[in-house]
Design a protein that fits this description.
mainly alpha; Fumarate Reductase Cytochrome B subunit; two-stranded antiparallel sheet; three-stranded antiparallel beta sheet; disordered C terminus; 571 residues
């Protein structure tokens, strides 16, 4: 029995080998080397089955065997009368096949349209070569020929267009079929939105500074379109607003000087009338691509008049509104000063030193916020306001950070080395009563209690904000220095420390800015009892009425007055 088993194993092994294992390319070429061999497909189209061995050796698949692609072929072919299944390109080209299946061609095949283009219709069958080769059917200058096998009218229009003529002149930059419709995921642009046509298709070239400079094209065609009525309507979601192709055409894009162009002056009435019934010659001469400086690419009377109108109104706006601002600003300052003099503010809430510390802290914080978000979002209006210099924004941010850390260090020394500082620290230190005041405030805000909590010099709200500033300064300072000195930091710590520090720095900045706007600005600006501003931030003083209303528990002996700046009671 032990002698029979090896023979049985050998027989089973050979039985498991595919029937086509012995087929070689030469076996297939015995028949397919005949250039008269063809078959007719279900659509009635004659398909050549000839394989040119010489061209096969030059193709991208020259290292493949026939059976690498035709996996279902057997030694009985073609006598078994079983047609071979279409080659599954996805076995090697998975990503490209996935894109193709989502294309207009792939979707048409799924819908049962056998005449839709397949891989071989564009790439050929056995003579597949790189698209960089002039003999490739998808070479830039041969795409029209390849696509024209199915899209004859579109190809004729394209060949007459400025794009087609540029390709024929040897330009590699001019858009071909795949330049607008993409490559494997070929998409039909019929019914596409204005934004899709203008932003995703035409802007690929016409928003390119390199191409506009190289071919002496207007550099503002895209920006001026989106600033026009049509462009603005598209950006706000209109599905019927005109796009680039609505006026210039799709495939047969011609220069305005060509009498066949849809934007030639003799055709403009018809072009505009497609969307604007009743449009006449006077309506059609309006400019679409009006530049920001008021010019419209011409020197006609209407353009010059529009430019001068713009200049006159800009002058009127600056002088009129500027005068109004100056008048009301001065009046506001005078009336505010008079009101403060009438009401009197003898109670000193903040010392001169504390006012200056607050001012420097607030100023550095604002500069940090503005420059920081301008660095994070370089395309935002905030960055544009600061100018185009990224180094300026970066160094302004760093200097403001140093100032904030400096005032923080000074404040620490102030707290420990001065009597006013030690008193300030003691009054700001959280105590048990603060927790009880939070509960009382909840009851008051919910309407469960008629009285709000009574506080001394500082309540829970002010203490929370003060210690939040301390915490935020420490966090922002540490992470900011780590980002700035990342080379030095990574001498001792892994690079991910800087990455995490960057994340903390950004989100802590968002948290701090929102807290200032929502919490601090309410208490010092929008609170009806202090609006439009709690002027204590300017000179540290408040009225006796405000002191008694907001800080009723502050001992009278500790209340500083303008006539007694040391804060001692009169004896």
């Amino acid at each position: 029995m032990h002698r029979v088993l090896p023979w049985l194993f050998t027989l089973l092994l050979f039985a498991a080998v595919p029937a086509f294992a012995g087929l070689k390319n030469s076996d297939c070429l015995d028949c397919h080397g005949d250039n008269t061999l063809f078959q007719t497909n279900s659509a009635g189209k004659a398909i050549s089955l000839f394989v040119d061995a010489a061209k096969l050796k030059l193709s991208a698949h020259r290292t493949n065997e026939c059976i690498s692609c035709h996996t279902d072929v057997t030694v009985k072919h073609p006598d078994d009368n079983r047609p071979l299944a279409p080659v599954n390109c996805a076995r090697c080209h998975e990503r490209q096949t996935e894109s193709f299946n989502a294309s207009s061609h792939g979707l048409a095949l799924k819908a049962g349209h056998d005449g839709a283009a397949t891989c071989r219709d564009c790439h050929d069958t056995h003579e597949i070569i790189s698209d960089n080769s002039p003999t490739s059917p998808i070479y830039y200058s041969r795409q029209a020929e390849t696509c024209g096998a199915c899209h004859e009218r579109e190809t004729r229009d394209w060949e007459q267009s400025v794009h087609g003529r540029a390709v024929q002149a040897g330009s590699h930059d001019a858009p071909t079929c795949t330049g607008c419709h993409d490559e494997h995921k070929i998409r039909s642009l019929k019914g596409s939105s204005t934004m899709s046509i203008s932003e995703d298709v035409c802007s690929r070239c016409h928003a390119s500074e390199r191409l506009n400079t190289k071919y002496n094209l207007p550099a503002d065609r895209v920006t001026t379109f989106f600033e026009s009525y049509h462009g603005l309507a598209a950006q706000y979601g209109s599905t019927v607003a005109a796009n680039c192709a609505s006026c210039h055409g799709f495939h047969k894009v011609l220069p305005s000087s060509d009498t066949n162009s849809t934007i030639n002056k003799i055709n403009l009435v018809v072009t505009c009338g497609k969307c604007h019934p009743g449009a006449n010659q006077e309506f059609s001469i309006g400019k679409i691509h009006v530049a920001p400086d008021g010019q419209a690419g011409g020197v006609d009377f209407g353009s010059r008049l529009n430019n001068w109108t713009r200049r006159i109104y800009l002058f009127l706006i600056f002088t009129t509104i500027g005068g109004m601002l100056a008048h009301n600003g001065i009046l506001f300052v005078k009336k505010t000063a008079a009101r403060l003099r009438r009401t009197g503010r003898p109670v000193v809430r903040m010392t001169t030193s504390q006012c200056w510390q607050h001012f420097v802290l607030a100023t550095s914080f604002i500069v940090l916020a503005v420059t920081g978000f301008a660095l994070k979002f370089p395309d935002s209006w905030l960055a544009k306001v600061l100018g185009s210099s990224e180094p300026f924004r970066r160094w302004a941010h760093r200097v403001a950070g140093i100032v904030m850390l400096g005032v923080g260090l000074y404040h620490l020394i102030y707290l420990l080395a001065t009597r006013d500082g030690r008193k300030l620290l003691a009054d700001l230190f959280p105590v048990k009563k603060d927790a009880l005041d939070v509960l009382r405030a909840v009851c008051y805000l919910a309407g469960w209690s008629p009285d709000k909590p009574k506080i001394g010099r500082f309540g829970y709200a002010e203490k929370m904000e003060y210690w939040a500033v301390v915490w935020g300064t420490l966090i922002m300072g540490a992470t900011g220095l780590a980002i700035w000195l990342k080379i030095d930091v990574t001498q001792f710590l892994p690079r991910w420390v800087v990455t995490v520090a960057t994340t903390i720095h950004y989100y802590e900045a968002v948290l701090a800015c929102l807290a200032i706007i929502v919490w601090h600005f309410y208490h010092v600006i929008f609170d009806p009892e202090v609006y439009p501003l709690n002027t204590a931030c300017l000179d540290g003083r408040i009225s006796e009425e405000f002191q008694a209303h907001e800080h009723p528990l502050e001992p009278a002996a500790e209340t500083r007055r303008a006539d007694n700046p040391r804060g001692f009671e009169e004896r």
